[in-house]
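subagent[fold] <- orchestrator: predict structure for attached chain, return tokens only, no commentary.
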Amino acid sequence: MKKEVPTLLSNNVREYRMKKQLTQQQLADLVKVSSRTIISLEKGQYNPSVLLAHELAKIFGLKIEELFNFEED
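subagent[fold] -> orchestrator:
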């Protein structure tokens, strides 16, 4: 039986963004997305691409799995 992919990821983006004293716009500029994308991501309303997740983790000096948590329904 094939296992389904989680519908949403929980994440610690806001926590790490605040620790780095970055605004949502500043973080968005660093990863070349809109501030709306960062807002949606922080609210858990958006699943990032692997490339975006990698870029965010790199900015915070983390591994992707330290920044994002896979939650199964």
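orchestrator: received. Logging for downstream: The mean pLDDT is 90. The first strand starts at residue 8 and ends at 11.
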